[in-house]
Amino acid sequence: MKAKFFYDGDCSFCLGLADYWRSQIDHEKIEFLSFRDFPESELIKFHNQLTFAQCEGNVQLISGNSRLPGFFGVRRMLFWTKYKYFAPLLYLPLVPFLGVGVMYFLKLFKSKK
């Protein structure tokens, strides 16, 4: 089963992030979807915790039964790229706090199309 990466199609930062990852990851492993293309009732079918409020706040990676928001989803996707050998560094102590902070900081400066 393919993982699904949900992003905000109206957000230039999220769209840029999705385009970058789309160019780095094999399309057999993941599908990139704008959550704006689905009603909330269909989002819940992908994962029971997936809502508009969740998707507007962060990109979301649905892999199997797991929902990984923002930094945690991006960190997981790194294993599917040529940078997979650097991915374990993102699991070191305190790195997730820094990663979440960076994603939050970038989200503050995102701009709408």
Brief write-up:
Helix content is 42%, strand content 16%. The protein is an alpha+beta fold and 113 residues long. Helix 1 links the parallel strand 1 and strand 2 (30-34).
Sum up the structure in keywords:
single chain, about 110 residues, alpha+beta, 5 helices, globular
Which helices and strands, and how do they pair?
Layout: E1 3-7, H1 12-24, E2 30-34, H2 40-46, H3 52-57, E3 60-63, E4 66-69, H4 70-77, H5 95-108
Parallel strand pairs: 1-2
Antiparallel strand pairs: 1-3, 3-4
Basic shape? globular
Strand order, main sheet: write it out. 2-1-3-4
- Class per helix and strand makeup: alpha+beta
Model regions low in confidence, pLDDT < 50 over at least 5 residues: none
> Which H/E pattern describes the elements?
EHEHHEEHH
Q: What distance lies between the first and last C-alpha atoms, to the nearest angstrom?
A: 32 Å
* Continuous helix count: 5
CA gyration radius, whole angstroms = 14 Å
Q: Could you walk me through the main structural features you see in this protein, from its secondary elements to its overall organization?
A:
- The chain has 113 residues and is an alpha+beta fold.
- The chain is built from five helices and four strands, in the order E-H-E-H-H-E-E-H-H.
- Strands 2-1-3-4 form a four-stranded mixed sheet.
- Helix 1 links the parallel strand 1 and strand 2.
